[in-house]
Each structure stands twice: as structure tokens, then as C-alpha cells.
Amino acid sequence: MEERSGQGVRMRDVAGAAGVSRQAVYDHFGSRADLMVATVRHGDEVLGLDGRLRHYRAATGGTERLEAFVEFWGNYVPEIHGIARALLAARETDEAVAAAWDDRMGVVYEACHDIVGRLHRDGALASGWSLDEAADVLWTMLSIHSWESLVLERGWPVGRYVGRMQELARRAFVRGSEGA
């Protein structure tokens, strides 16, 4: 997908590269969309996603969970950026690629919603936010586009991006941190 910027990844090409029939690929994955989703998830496995999420998953408080996820995501994006760009480039014209992108961003959104929910349960969600609105804004703040704008276009080091996004997220969503 990276080589072709997400464009024109065909089941026939995958089958040829794997040394199996096209039917075997369909039998295993069911559809091109399922293949694309599996490819992205395999990339996460190869990059050790579960291990990288350990600190986030172990965090019990909403604020700690927020900071751990922003740190994880800000440091993970550079490693998945190539495939993310490929998916973004092709998703408007390719349903399978759109499914893979939606699957991935759905997982990120679920984490954002979980974080906001924990802040709410802790009594720490800043006033004025509904759970869904806060999750929507956090998800948008952590978008690939935001990362690209600050790190690639403005030249921020990844560490600065992580620190500033943690600070911004605390100020926006954690009660008592507003305007701090």
C-alpha cells in the first residue's frame, strides 16, 4: 500500500506476491476491504501496538490515561505515517481503503471516548463538555492532519508535539486545568 500510495492494491497483486491464487486470498479475507483492514492491523502487530499501549491501559485515572494516550499516539504516528498517507490518498475513491481508514480511526475514537468517559467518572471533566463533544474534539486534536501540520510543516520535534498536545488536552478537558 505504501509503494502505491494506497492506489490500485488488487487482490491479484497480493496473491501473486504471496504465491497463492487470487481465490485463496478471497477465501481467507472475504473481500478487498477485509484485506485492507487486516493489513493495517497486521502493521500494528508488527510495530508492537499492544505493548506500546500498556501504560495507557494500566492508567486508572482519566488524566493519567489522557496523557498516556497522547504520548503513545504522538510517538506512534511517525511510524505509521507512510501507511496513513497512503490510506488518506486513496480513501476518497476506494471503498476498501476507506474501510481500512475508518477501522483505524474508529479505534482511535474509541480511545478518546474512553478517556473522556474516565474523566467524567472521576469528576474531572471540565465543565461545558458533553462526553461526545469532548471525544470528538480530542479525536480531532490528535488527527494525522494535526500531527502533520505541527511536526512536518512547522518543524516541531515529536517530543514538543507530545508535550504541547498533553498540555492542551489537559487545559481543554481536565477540570481545574482550564486556563492554567
Can you describe what's shown?
By secondary structure, this protein is an all-alpha fold. The protein has one domain: Tetracycline Repressor, domain 2. Helices cover 74% and strands 0% of the residues.
CATH arch. level architecture: Orthogonal Bundle
What proportion of the residues is helical, as a percent range? over 70%
The low-confidence runs, each spanning 5 or more residues with pLDDT under 50, are none
Broad structural category: mainly alpha
Domain unit count: 1
* Rg (CA only): 18 Å
Sketch the topology as an H/E string, one letter per element: HHHHHHHHHH
Number of DSSP strand runs? 0
The CATH class, by name, is: Mainly Alpha
Largest sheet: none
The DSSP helix count reads 10
Question: Which band does the percent of strand residues land in?
Answer: under 5%
Please name the CATH topology. Tetracycline Repressor, domain 2
Q: Shape, please?
A: elongated
Overall pLDDT confidence:
88
CATH superfamily: Tetracycline Repressor, domain 2
Distance between the termini: 43 Å
Question: How would you concisely characterize the structure shown here?
Answer:
With 180 residues, this protein is an all-alpha fold. It has helices spanning 11-18, 22-29, 32-46, 49-52, 54-58, 62-90, 95-121, 131-141, 144-153, 158-173. It has one domain (11-173): Orthogonal Bundle (Tetracycline Repressor, domain 2), CATH 1.10.357.
